[in-house]
Amino acid sequence: MAVYTDVTDEALFAFLADYDLGEVLSFKGIAEGVENSNFLLHCQRGFYILTLYEKRVNPDDLPFFIGLMEHLATKKLSCPVPVKRRDGAALGTLAGRPAAIVTFLDGVSARKPEALHCAETGRALAQLHLAGQGFALSRHNALSVDHWPALFEASRARAEEVSPGLATEIAAELDALRRLWPSDLPQGVIHADLFPDNVFFIGRKLSGVIDFYFACTDALAYDLAICLNAWCFETDGSFNATKGRALLQGYQSLRPLAPSESDALPVLARGAAMRFLLTRLYDWLNVPPGALVRPKNPLEYLSKLRFHQTIARAGEYGLGA
User: Of 11, 69, 132, 280, which sees the most CB atoms within 10 A?
Assistant: First the structure.
């Protein structure tokens, strides 16, 4: 989450006139994240999240995102639910941007995830994958292997500003990933961004999953590889095999991996590290002036990529251990 677009009081009140939420009690921007403008909205009827979809989001994808949250909620996955206007629509326009309001989930993110958080997250990810099987819509993953070269080209000329030799290293890895990337894995709806700040806990129990605006149709095991990157590394860059084992066991308690998925996990983890290295590199070099946003250091994912390049078997992540 982040704030790129300012919303005036007058524009907000005009937008909310189409909803039945009562009087506005408070309204403030949320600085975390990098993609859309998000605000915590407190009205007489409760707390909500107001999202303005910024230019990187294709408006044609919004029915997929909105519909997916509605679908997953009916399948008992704890996630935000879009709030409908009086005319029954879930999307409107605010400050020149497509906008929607979703329900607020109680809980807090795990700032220092432990193995138990990883196990809970693995189970929630499997629950999401199983619930998504009945969702009627699909969305191509615009941030998968076929699109990484173009994303890299947007930053290649300035990559050396971030780290000497970075452009050469990325180019070589992209060539390798194109050769190694699997094409026959089980597919379905994936979250594609299930980082710790997108998972809420109350005490030691997972209370909800948020931020479905990268969700798409892709290999289910790729989503698990994203979580290995997001949840199982320590602040010093080392991989925590105990957390990896907990994440994978939690996932497989609901959805066991096929042998082809297990075999592909090291390559998928490399790809997941590459995806976030490239998007973080671009965001690091292109922060909009005046934006309330905190770009994340892309070199964190360069370190993770190098680790995954040393892994030959999924068992080294804790799978089957």
Answer: 69
